[in-house]
Amino acid sequence: MKKLITTTIAAFVLSSAAYADTIKVGVIGPFSGPFALQGKNFKAGIDAYFALHGNTAGDDTIEVIYRDVPQPDPAQSKALAQELVVKEGVQYLAGFYFTPDATAATPILEQGNVPMVVMNAATSAIVTKSPYVVRTSFTTWQTSTPIAKVAKDAGVNKVISIVSDYGPGVDAENAFKAAFEKEGGEVVEAIRMPLSTNDFSPIMQRVKDSGAEAVFAFLPSGPTTLGFVKAFNQNGLKDAGIKLFAPGDLTQESDLPALGDQALGMQTTFHYAVSHDSPENKEFVAAAQKAIGNPAELSFPAVGAFDGMHVIAKMIEATGGEQDAQKAVEAVKGLSWTSPRGPVTVDPESRHIMQNIYLREVTKADDGSYFNKEIQTFEKQGDPGLEAAK
Amino acid sequence: MQTVFSIAVDALAYGMVLFVISIGLSVTMGLMRVVNLAHGAFAMIGGYVASYAARDLGLGYAAAVLLAVAGTVLIAIPIERLLYRRVYGAPELTQVLMTIGITFCIIGIANFVFGPTLKTIPLPDTLRGSVDLGFRSIATHRIFAIICGLVVAAALWFLIEKTAFGIKLRAAVDNAAMAAALGVRTEIVYAVSFAVAIGLAALGGVVGAELLPVEPYYALRYMVTFLVVVSVGGAGSIPGALLACLLLGAIDTTGRYLAPEYGEFFFYLAVIVIVILFPRGLAGRFK
């Protein structure tokens, strides 16, 4: 009798995968706490995808289960990923705003036969941690490299680099230095400042003393960027003709209303601007703004999540709903589609997204609001960070 | 030489902003003996009220500042009556737990009501832009903050040391039972000083908003810095807090100029040294 029950259960469990109607996707991100805005954007992107394309892939229905990691916390991220795989039976892991959270969860992918779709975390190395990682966001190397050419084209030869002292900041510093020296420019000084810095006046004094013609800066979006840009203007650097170059983290759509006039004319490079002019993006923005509630809060993690859901839907179609991580990942290698940000391809080698990087300038719209206006396109950018690491 | 002057000016401005925000905490901790971890939350409420008044109601800056101080005090009165009054004289741990709880509640409410994005307080034209000092330019707003700090310091010192109310407050703090027996209405004295401390927090939140922008996590993000200022200065001492702010501002600013990669190393090194040498703070009172 006992054997019969066991076989019945076994048969049921085995067959359930093939007939499964509902495929569960576990999304880990910061849904509360200081970074809740980013988690909200994940959710808006996913909701927008379902609103536009429905929540089915092939014959299967997609169900998303959210788990909250409020701040970078690798241990918690790993524990939640495990719980999602073991207890909830998710077939896909997705989300991950912070690099350490994504890296911590990679060891369970092969064991659990689960692919991971990184919707934000932007350190190059994550895709090397497991063959089942696919990324639909960007890397700091990817967004920081083109600005070096922009700086050189603007006639700048000496640059001082100022970054926040943490992983992505160091990445940005290296990316810019490598690209700018390749263009024939010189980074005269590289400053790393603590993440908690809130008074930037002494840093601005360093800039003045360094004799650089321009500043390359990287800070995570949020309260510090406001202080940084203000300090740059108020300490007379802008008036002295010193230029400011940065990846798009400094002029995030969610920070622009606060930055306002201070940021006007600032040039940054990034993979996505909410203002991107394409029919796909208009559709996406309308759906995502509806999902997020307050239109002003929409920014880049939403597009990473939107495309992440697209990749997962393709994976589910390719495997017919069966749990087969390898087949799923193979199916999306080289996959190309038109994302709200423009044409994108999953690089078959690195499983990282290849995309256009745009040069944008902060511009005042007719209704008095500020937006990132795309003025130049760097097409089909891969991730130079992986090359550099080799 | 120009660089030295320049850093000195930055240090002064940063120190005074710290002073304006932290002094209210010094009053609650030193004079009322309440470890008020919700101080940052009240400063944040001040910032939100000012931002709302200036941006959404279109009031002028001065009106927004007054409304922020008055509004925050008004919000704080029921909190004082219902919650704080229970923990006067309670063990520190009880006070810490209750006030941190209040902080989390306020963070949640602010996040819900105003959203997670940054809120700015638009400055009037007179405070916008920079002033040329000859050897460098400095934001006009910083000068305003320095003046605010000096005025607050002078007014508080006068209130506590020179007025009848100050005498009652000091009496109530040193021995509440004895003061009450002599006819001092300690409840009122406490309520008024609490209101003053909250008003100062709100003022600090508004004046310091250019440096520490208002967002829901403001309440916790800068709390450590405020506590450090109070413990280094000596809780309850106005000159002590002023001295601590200027000293810490100078060390932090110089460190940030000379060796930014060391982060806040010099800041906390200085704190450790000062606390070892002066366990009750630079101007702490002896019990």
TrEMBL record, chain A:
Q: Do you know which InterPro entries this protein is assigned to?
A: BCAA_transport, Leu-bd, Leu_Ile_Val-bd, Peripla_BP_I
**Keyword Cytoplasm on entry:** no
Keywords, A to Z?
Amino-acid transport, Signal, Transport
On the tree of life, the source organism's domain of life is: Bacteria
Q: Enumerate the spans annotated as Leucine-binding protein domain.
A: 22-364
> What residue stretch is flagged as signal peptide?
1-20
Q: Which SUPFAM superfamilies does this UniProt record tie to the protein?
A: Periplasmic binding protein-like I
Which family does the record claim for this protein?
A: Belongs to the leucine-binding protein family.
PANTHER family, from UniProt?
LEUCINE-SPECIFIC-BINDING PROTEIN, PERIPLASMIC BINDING PROTEIN OF ABC TRANSPORTER FOR NATURAL AMINO ACIDS
Which protein is depicted?
A: Branched-chain amino acid transport system substrate-binding protein
TrEMBL record, chain B:
Membrane association type: Multi-pass membrane protein
Protein name as it appears in the record: Branched-chain amino acid transport system permease protein
PANTHER family tied to this protein: ABC TRANSPORTER ATP-BINDING PROTEIN, BRANCHED-CHAIN AMINO ACID TRANSPORT SYSTEM PERMEASE PROTEIN LIVH
- Kindly report the protein's main subcellular placement as a broad class: membrane
Matching entries from Pfam families are given as:
BPD_transp_2
Q: Is Signal a UniProt keyword of this protein?
A: no
Q: Which domain of life is it from?
A: Bacteria
Which ranges of the sequence are coiled-coil? none
Tell me the keywords, alphabetical order: Amino-acid transport, Cell membrane, Membrane, Transmembrane, Transmembrane helix, Transport
Its family remark reads: Belongs to the binding-protein-dependent transport system permease family. LivHM subfamily.
Species lineage, top-down? Bacteria, Pseudomonadati, Pseudomonadota, Alphaproteobacteria, Hyphomicrobiales
**What is the protein's species of origin?**
Pseudorhizobium tarimense
Can the keyword Calcium be found in this entry's annotation?
A: no
Segments crossing the lipid bilayer: 6-27, 34-54, 60-84, 96-118, 138-160, 190-212, 224-250, 265-283
Q: Where does this one sit in the cell?
A: Cell membrane
